[in-house]
Amino acid sequence: MAKGLAYYRGIRGSAALATAPLEPGAVPAEALAPGEMRRVPYAGELLGAARVRASFVALPLEALDRAGEVLEAEEQAAYFQLLRLAYGEGRNWARAGKRELMARLRLSERRLLRVLDGLVQKGFARPLHRDNRGTLWRVALPAEAFGEPVGDDVLLGRAAPAPVDAAPPDGRSGPAAGPVARVADRSARPAPARAARLEQPAPVAPPATPAARRERELARALCQARGRDGDEAFAASLREVRELREEGQSPERIAAAVAAVARRRAKGVVDEASRPVLPAGAGGVDGRPA
What we know:
Oligomer: single chain
Number of strands: 5
Structural class: mainly alpha
Strand order of the largest sheet: 3-5-4
Radius of gyration: 27 Å
Distance between the termini: 86 Å
Order of helices and strands: HEEHHEHHEEHHHHHH
């Protein structure tokens, strides 16, 4: 019994609080209307409105409410840190190393790995890539973890097909990355001892469908119309052509817009290096009606 009493620890300051029903209007702060920018005094504190205007994370409330129903305490802590690193930067992924997460959570490596495995098993995170910067995590909202749509309150980026052998979203190519990824990251060349392994040719892709071949033809024509060359220019043009196809534009209409780009470039009408191309919803490849 003595051992049990020694083990028990109450909450500091709570022993002085007598349990009693709350009288109506006893705490004026609870009577403030939502959004009312006031604070009122109570027990030596000012209680009321407080809004964070910068350096905050916009998360649906279910990230706090529903996740707690299925995650253990340490899993919740790790999940909130991944949410901060992902959605706190406006994206659904995060690159984090074990040392960083161990420091944020104050966990040993063994406990951290157990906690992260629990998140993966329950669908709240998924490892996609690993290099010397850490692991690339796809961080799911609770609705996604439960197999539900995220809803209209969450704005998602438009899905766009990536070029063949694309690098991870934070830029550096991995061992299986092809020429497009390597050109985009010339400044981060591997050490000579590893270069031979990383420069192995990518696996041969399956034969392209007629629609895919047509998209690549249009992308090459767009590169020529702009006077650009190289893997990066082709990859960017291919992405833009595919975006137009996803928006419902026909190959013939895209080809006509590409021809218009070539004509205007020949006449020196459009300075394409100083203005964006392919804005969402545009009628032509350079933002003008084809």
